[in-house]
Design a protein that fits this description.
Blueprint: E1 2-5, H1 7-14, H2 21-34, E2 37-40, H3 42-71, E3 73-74, H4 79-91, H5 99-111, E4 115-117, H6 122-125, H7 131-139
Parallel strand pairs: 1-2, 1-4, 2-3
């Protein structure tokens, strides 16, 4: 079981008061039980560092970032990935889809991940399966 992780999940993991914290923890526990492989994009880490700085402060962001780098597999983004992400971004119809999201989608395709660990419904609109949805289907 392989998944790529998005920024909303990173915030949900480290912030107990985040609206997605409880859902993030449920999916995260499931992944631990299943011994899932979790991959992260450098673009996601960069996005987290910006958002985390505002929400966690400098020390909290640095501590969290170090933890993610130890626990998750960072997959590099090459120039071809960036070109494909930019092309995908050009096709998006909502301001809710960022270049970071497009990098996640490009890596998800290239790495043939099973699903994306995010709660962003925009991934579904782009043909991807979210982790939470997949878990619900497996439990039924």
């Amino acid at each position: 079981m392989i998944s790529i992780v998005d920024t909303d999940v990173l915030l949900g993991l480290v912030m107990a008061d985040d609206p997605l914290h409880a859902r993030t923890m449920v999916v995260s526990r499931y992944f631990q039980i299943q011994n899932a492989t979790l991959i992260i994009s450098p673009a996601t880490l960069a996005e987290f560092s910006l958002v985390g700085l505002k929400r966690l402060g400098l020390v909290g962001m640095k501590t969290s970032l170090s933890s993610f780098l130890r626990e998750l597999i960072t997959e590099s983004i090459g120039s071809n990935d960036m070109r494909m992400a930019q092309e995908l971004l050009a096709k998006q119809q909502s301001k809710d889809h960022s270049l970071c999201d497009c990098c996640v989608m490009v890596l998800a395709k290239r790495l043939h991940v099973d699903f994306i660990f995010s709660f962003d419904r925009g991934y579904i609109k782009n043909g991807f399966v979210l982790a939470e949805e997949l878990i619900k289907k497996r439990k039924n």
